[in-house]
Amino acid sequence: MTDNQQRFSGGPDIGRLLRPFAGLVVPAAAVIAALAVGAILLGVFGANPFTGYRALFTGAFGGPDELAATALKSIPLMLVGVGICIAFRTGVINIGGEGQIIMGAIMATLVALALPDVPRPILVPLVMIAGGVGGGIWGAIPGALKAYSGVNEILSTIMMNIIAGFFMSFLLEDWLIEPGAIRIQQTKRLSHNADLPILPGGTRLHLGIVVALVVAILGYLLLFRSSLGMRLRAVGHNPHASRSAGMKVELSITQALAFSGACAGIAGAVLVFGSESHRLIGEGGPLAFTQSAGFNGIVTALFGGLHPLFTVLSSYLFGGMLAGGISLQRVVQVPQALVIALNGVVVVFVVGSLKLRARVQQWAEGDIQMEDRA
Question: What pTM value is reported for the model?
Answer without folding.
Answer: 0.88
